[in-house]
Amino acid sequence: MTTPSVHRWFKSSYSGGSGTECVECARTRDGALARDSKSTGGPFVAVRNEAWQAFTQAVRDEKC
Asked: What pTM was estimated for this model as a whole?
């Protein structure tokens, strides 16, 4: 897998406003990456397209 620093990361619109609960995501050709915005050099989670689409649809359906 490509090093996450080469990806264009963006903050989730559902992240907490206090700056302590921020999630960042990046799209890849195979899916998406997610990481803690306070740990940009730290670990990240890679998710395949089908799973990412199911996840984002579930979030939209819940209207969080």
From this structure: 0.70
